[in-house]
Specification:
The chain folds into two domains: 7-68, Orthogonal Bundle (Arc Repressor Mutant, subunit A), CATH 1.10.10.10; 76-207, Umud Fragment, subunit A (Ribbon), CATH 2.10.109. The radius of gyration is 23 Å and the shape is elongated. It has four helices and eleven strands. It starts with 6 loop residues before the first helix and ends in a 7-residue tail after the last helix. With 214 residues, it is of the alpha+beta class. It has helices at residues 7-23, 29-36, 40-52, 201-207, and strands at residues 56-58, 66-68, 76-79, 94-98, 111-114, 130-134, 144-149, 152-161, 164-168, 177-180, 186-196. The strands form two sheets. The protein has a nine-stranded mixed β-sheet with strand order 4-3-5-6-11-7-8-9-10, with no helix packed on it. It has a two-stranded antiparallel ribbon with strand order 1-2.
């Protein structure tokens, strides 16, 4: 993640972005210097700092040796259902984004997932609800997690019992899933730290035709 920038560094970055958008190639140091009304050495110093702060890539002694760093979109990624053979948390499986960091405390790797089905109904989780999941949160007994079992995502209560893990549904008609902590086909993706309730049933039904989470 890029460090905070000064106003001067923001100005240089803005000039670079606008130039690339307009001309489809990066500016030279002289072109940036002309915009800023400073000398080339001052521009070079700014670019070196911006490179160190990971705001862009600068290759000294190279003509137009400036590259923009891809920016993470605002909001957390929301993952949908992954078809067989496709990793659940892949870029292709991001179905939306949601800006939630103002309201939910979590790491920078916070992500979202939609609930589908009734296996957690007694925990008040219903189809269409959006869960906020922190992969950096410590996994303790009694928390709700999103886990992968045999490549399939599932939302369950988590209990560690020696070398085994019990994933417990909040619905008596379903049985717990018991797996070895060392099973290569089992992985806890994160701890559920918040949720947003879906109330519009028509919209939920429409959304679930295209977005799915277990």
């Amino acid at each position: 993640m890029a460090s905070a920038l000064t106003k001067a560094q923001e100005r240089v970055l803005t000039i670079v972005r606008e130039y690339i958008e307009e001309n489809h190639l990066p500016p030279t140091l002289s072109e940036i210097a002309e915009k800023l009304k400073v000398n080339v050495n001052a521009v070079r110093a700014h670019l070196l700092v911006l490179h160190r702060k990971q705001a862009l890539r600068y290759i000294p002694n190279t003509s137009r040796g400036i590259e923009l760093v891809p920016q993470r979109p605002k909001g957390i990624p929301i993952y949908g259902y992954a078809p067989a053979g496709h990793p659940f948390m892949s870029q292709e499986n991001i179905v939306d984004t949601f800006e939630v960091q103002k309201y939910v405390s979590g790491s920078d790797d916070l992500f979202g997932v939609y609930v589908r089905g009734d296996s957690m109904k007694d925990a008040q989780l219903a189809t269409g609800d959006l869960l906020f999941v922190d992969p950096k949160r410590d996994v303790q007994n009694g928390v709700i997690v999103v886990a992968l079992v045999e490549g399939e995502p599932t939302i369950k209560w988590f209990y560690r019992e020696g070398s085994m893990v019990r994933l417990v549904p909040a619905n008596k008609k379903y049985q717990p899933i018991v797996v070895s902590r060392h099973d290569e086909n089992f992985k806890v993706l994160g701890v559920v730290v918040g949720m947003m309730r879906a109330l519009d049933k028509q919209r939920i039904d429409s959304m679930m035709k295209y977005r799915r989470a277990s």
